[in-house]
Design goal:
Family: Belongs to the glutamate--cysteine ligase type 2 family. YbdK subfamily.
GO molecular function: ATP binding; glutamate-cysteine ligase activity
Organism: Streptomyces zagrosensis
Protein name: Putative glutamate--cysteine ligase 2
Largest sheet: 7 strands, antiparallel
Order of helices and strands: EHEEHEHEHHEEHHEEHHEEHHHH
Distance between the termini: 33 Å
Helix content: 40-55%
Function: ATP-dependent carboxylate-amine ligase which exhibits weak glutamate--cysteine ligase activity.
């Protein structure tokens, strides 16, 4: 239930080559002693804006801030910008006696109703959903791919829908919430799943059909704004982009850059299918929401429905099938190495959820988890975006959240 910050002034794609891609990352502010979230967003945003201007803003709760990149051509360019943005907001937070935490839910703190940001759109959501908002403190990654043709964009969204659970698994980074282990890899996705206006978009015959569905939901009171749907794929209302919104904010900015490369390749591949006359698979909405739930629980190394065949397969195998599906686009963009390296990192150490649980098994427990996460904004250059750490193994060393050893990170 948040807006977009992708920089519209730089959003026009006027050159040959891959479409530009930009991202928004949402982060929590935490106290260095308690490691609990702090409602200091307006202060930190004001300070960070001195260096970043409108590349930083507030979010749905005052526990959060958001950074947004300008449109980038390569994952390496995007990675460098994310490093700069994370370092700048970490510096601004430090000046306020706080730290910046890239987790999709509060690891510690956040008990009681959230402190909602001072924005009319946010207040409308509170009025509509009432106590469902009480724990709605979640931080996402949103990826924008330049695609100004909205008719094309909604049909591309039909092709993207079956891949959304795998993107959730790849990005899962919210196993803890308010001091407890939820047993899920992406608790953020569970929180979002209870809202009628969040989650996978419906199949759309056309942009007009898409608009009609949003208007009907707004008329019944299940969506705050028909002109600003909150579905996990949407042609952005003000920007020339297709926005994918299903992912947890990753701990490592290199993973953010790689997920942006994956998303762009999926959009380009799907656009090619639409142009050839394929309007996209009519994936059953109920089965897709079930696949979402499975993805949120088990994350990477969980089993789920393959978007291409319908077979139930482990996530690493589905990741390899995704790589092959979008390989021509990745080759055209020069991104094969980036995505292959990302799959290698996932197979070596899992997603951010596995990282959090591994650190939680060390001395310090959840305070150590927060310290590890905040270190990734204070010193964000932890991984080279295209570094191949190891090949993708057929069988990971551990498969469930209970099995992650502390030495894995």
């Amino acid at each position: 239930m948040n807006g977009s910050g992708y920089k519209a002034g730089h959003g026009t794609h006027t050159h040959a080559g891959p479409p530009t891609v930009g991202v928004e990352e949402e982060h929590f502010l935490v106290h260095p002693d308690s490691r609990a979230v702090e409602p200091a967003g307006p202060r930190v945003v004001a300070r960070a804006a001195e260096a970043l201007g409108d590349l930083v803003s507030g979010e749905f709760t005052d526990y959060q801030i958001e950074v947004k990149t300008t449109p980038c051509t390569t994952p390496a360019e995007l990675h460098e910008e994310l490093i700069r943005l994370r370092a700048a907001v970490a510096s601004a937070a430090a000046a306020e006696g706080l730290r910046v935490c890239p987790s999709a839910t509060p690891v510690l703190g956040g008990a009681g109703p959230v402190v909602v940001g001072d924005h009319p759109r946010y207040r409308t959501s509170v009025d509509l959903f009432r106590s469902m908002i009480d724990d709605y403190a979640i931080s996402a990654l949103h990826v924008h791919v330049h695609l100004p043709d909205r008719e094309l964009a909604v049909l591309v969204g039909n092709h993207l829908r079956p891949w959304l659970p795998l993107l959730v698994e790849m990005s899962a980074n919210s196993p803890f919430h308010g001091g407890r282990d939820t047993g899920y890899a992406s608790w953020r996705s569970v929180i979002r799943g209870r809202f009628p206006c969040l989650g996978p978009p419906p199949y759309a015959e056309s942009f007009a059909h898409y608009q009609q569905t949003a208007a009907a939901m707004a008329e019944t009171g299940s969506m705050p704004f028909a002109e600003l749907p909150f579905w996990d794929i949407r042609p952005h209302p003000q920007l020339p982009t297709l926005e994918v919104r299903c992912m947890d904010v990753p701990a490592d900015p290199a993973d953010t850059a790689a997920l942006a490369a994956v998303t762009r390749a999926l959009v380009v591949t799907s656009a090619g299918l639409v142009r050839s006359g394929d309007p996209g698979p009519r994936t059953c909405g109920e089965l897709l929401r079930s696949a979402y739930w499975y993805a949120t629980r088990d994350g990477w190394w969980g089993r789920g429905v393959d978007a291409l065949s319908g077979a139930v397969l482990p996530a690493p195998e589905r990741g390899i099938r995704l790589l092959e599906h979008v390989r021509p686009a990745l080759e055209d963009h020069g991104d094969v190495e980036v995505v292959t390296a990302f799959l290698g990192r996932l197979s070596r150490r899992g997603s951010g959820a596995h990282r959090q649980r591994a650190v939680a098994g060390r001395p310090g427990g959840l305070t150590a988890v927060v310290d590890d996460l905040t270190s990734l904004t204070a010193s964000p250059r932890t991984t080279t975006v295209g570094a191949v750490e190891e090949s993708v193994p057929a069988s990971p060393q551990w498969r469930s959240y209970q099995d992650v050893p502390p030495e894995a990170v």
